[in-house]
Amino acid sequence: AAGAPLAHKMIPTRGTTHPPPAAAITAAGAHGRGRCGGRGDGEVDDATILDLLGRVAVGHRWMHVEKLQEFDGEPAYTKAQGED
Description:
6 strands; alpha+beta
C-alpha cells in the first residue's frame, strides 16, 4: 500500500493476526486475508481499491474483496483477534 491512500492494517489467518504473538500457536492456512483502511477520514472510492488490487496482483493472487462498512462511526463488521 506504499504511496496509496490506503494503509495496511493486518493479515489475519484463521482469526489470529500474522505474525501471531509468541504465546499463540496456529496452523498456517493455504490463504490469508489482508485488511486495509483509509489513511484519513472519509470513504475510500472504488478506483482506490482497484489500484491496490492491481498492486497486490503483481506478486500475489487475490480471490475476494469485501468492502467493510461503518455506520455513525461504528464498525458494521467483526474485527479479528488483536485488531485495533
